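User: Study the fold:
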Amino acid sequence: MTYETLLVEQAGAVGLVTLNRPDALNAINTRLIDELNQVLDGFERDASIGSILITGSRKAFAAGADVKEMAPLCFPGTYLDDFLGRWDRVAQRRKPIIAAVAGHALGGGFELALMCDFIIAADNARFGLPEVKLGVIPGAGGVQRLTRLVGRAKAMEMVLSGRSMDAAEAERAGVVARVVPLAELLDQALASAQAIAAQSRTAVMMLKECVNRVDEGSMAEGLRFERRMFQAVFATPDQKEGMGAFVEKRPPQFGR
């Protein structure tokens, strides 16, 4: 299947999505989000896919949401139509999603990257939420996710001024998992995605749920949930295979 705003392929057990609006620096419009959700729906159903990688171009992951699309909007239309509500589905996926970010990840582009489970950044990446400069605020979860990652002071300073951060600062602040040379970004991000896809699918999805619980409740609730997931995994064939392989000193062959 072909898409207007995306390039889609499969690299082994990894579903690879490339944002493809080069004339607009991959600015995110409704068509792009709808197509992305359609692709992610397919990857979620496809048993051969163990992880997902989303990337853009060397110049821009996504320079923001499409201002030309948003400029004529008004309230209550945005409220009644739940404008940007369809973005939430990206963050609700069960399979792990990695963002491989080069160049600009600003506004809606940064919000999309933050919806992924972690970010691997090229050394030329820049991140920010500059919506205040347009007289608006982020609307796809950027303020909430950024504040949880970097803390109140840095998030407040960035969103109120519209300042962006480079890749080195983003790594120090905990926004990105690691920074790699631009020329190595896709190879290293794919290697990370493939390493995840090689693990037990059940264990990987359980781990994703456990980490996400950190932001969703108290420590006591998170500990109880993690313990239940630990106990439940002993009912899976992958637990028997993984531990059996360790005892037998051989590589595990997890089910797909």
